[in-house]
Design a protein that fits this description.
alpha+beta, 13 strands, seven-stranded mixed beta sheet, 20 helices
């Protein structure tokens, strides 16, 4: 419920009065009972569900359906996970994964995803590196999160709302606010999350938070080395950057999120080429059409795309596509110099492309980049590569052809003839 306080600013009551009918009540009660059995008495729901549920209440919209359950406990999350499996049985508790480094656990209970985490404080020995953690209270745990709107929880002991950092006010103002002045420096991937939430929720960055992004980015990559190269960024940070960008590019409104990220200067986290790039929308829209990995297509415009892919630890398949993309662009550049291609038939284009053994996804990537002579590449990708000889090898052998090189050459000749009908 929303009420006016003495200052005239709307705020939520400290105790929620709405009915959380869409929560799995019986499952929650079982988790609370097992927690109490092993001495854990403080447990709360955290994560986007709390934020989105309150936002829906403000907007007087329908309640959200719960797709998973994120819980924080004052105690050992891994011990609770093992005890849940012990008491409820492995038939009900499945897919159990324990992450000892952060004392977290993932599982499914009756097929419903449940994540458990020990309440913790994070200490960053160096900017961008993975944090060191120590156990703490639920309220202290909320202070380590990214934005005020994500630093709220529902205490399951009495279904009260924990909001020590003003998340409700930020929701009402429709703003994203970092929790402290070093939020971005400690974990710059929060810039990517800011773009993601801003585009999804249609929220603006709170002015001080925007200033924090711009001022801390001036010091990027925040390493002790004298070399101002993002290659020196901590490996753990590079991995998190890749993961956050993959999440962003999986959103329906990725274009809006990327526009915001570029406007704030956040693409410097990758390199200056991408921060200055004005062609990414065309490239990514073509990548969507041609089923090219969006992150691979995005970084392909960098002059250091292969080293950037290695830094982000993209899968080797994607790194190889970037290497082949450069080969294709070089091939087309050289070809454009002598203009010989002006007389090439579809079969000649097909031969030249295929004899290099380039992956068809690499050709698609070159199309996304609007490489020189990208038109014939598109025709090969969409039509020519799919055309085969109208007569199969088996049919030719029935007509008297012997297996061997001559048969292969005849198949090529018949395919070339079929291709050149597209003149």
């Amino acid at each position: 419920m929303i009420h006016q306080n003495d200052t005239g600013i709307s705020s939520f009551e400290s105790k929620l009065t709405i009915s959380w009918v869409n929560l799995p009540q019986s499952l929650i009660q079982e988790i609370i009972k097992v927690s109490q059995d092993i001495g854990i008495h403080s447990i709360a729901i955290v994560g986007g569900f709390v934020r989105d549920q309150l936002l829906k209440e403000i907007q007087e919209d329908t309640l959200l359906s719960l797709r998973d359950l994120d819980l924080v406990v004052e105690g050992s999350a891994s011990n609770l996970a093992y005890e849940l499996q012990s008491q409820l049985g492995s038939s009900r508790v499945s897919n159990l994964q324990i992450h000892d480094s952060y004392n977290t656990a993932e599982m499914k209970i009756d097929g419903f995803p449940v994540d458990l985490a020990t309440a913790r404080i994070e200490h960053y020995s160096e900017p961008g590196k993975n944090p060191n953690i120590t156990p703490c209270s639920l309220k202290e745990d909320l202070s380590r999160r990214d934005f005020t709107i994500n630093a709220m929880a529902i205490d399951l002991s009495d279904m009260s709302l924990l909001d020590p950092l003003g998340g409700q006010d930020s929701l009402l103002k429709k703003e994203l606010k970092f929790l402290h002045p070093k939020s971005v420096k400690e974990d710059p991937t929060r810039i990517i999350r800011a773009a993601r939430y801003s585009s999804r929720l249609l929220f603006d960055l709170e002015p001080n938070s925007l200033n924090q992004i711009r001022s801390t980015l001036k010091e990027w990559p925040w390493v002790s080395s004298k070399s101002k190269s993002s290659q020196n960024a901590p490996p753990a940070l590079s991995t998190r950057l890749r993961l956050e960008m993959e999440i962003l590019l999986n959103q329906e409104n990725w274009a809006i999120a990327l526009e915001k990220l570029q406007k704030w200067g956040g693409l410097l986290l990758f390199d200056q080429n991408l921060q200055d790039d004005q062609t990414w929308q065309r490239r990514l829209r073509w990548a969507s059409k041609l089923k090219v990995n969006l992150l691979t297509a995005f970084i392909s415009a960098s002059k250091s795309s292969t080293s950037l892919a290695a830094r982000l630890q993209l899968p080797m398949q994607q790194q190889n596509l970037l290497i082949q993309n450069l080969e294709i662009q070089e091939f087309l550049f050289d070809l454009n110099l002598n203009k010989e291609y002006l007389h090439w038939s579809p079969s000649k284009w097909t031969y030249e492309i295929e004899q290099s053994n380039w992956n068809h996804e690499a050709v698609a990537l070159a199309i996304c980049n609007a490489s020189t002579l990208w038109g014939p590449l598109l025709r090969w990708w969409s039509r020519w590569r799919l055309i085969q000889s109208p007569i199969s090898a088996n049919e030719l052998m029935k007509r008297g052809w012997d297996p061997g090189p001559n048969l292969g050459e005849e198949l090529k000749r018949l395919r070339a003839k079929a291709l050149d009908r597209y003149k």
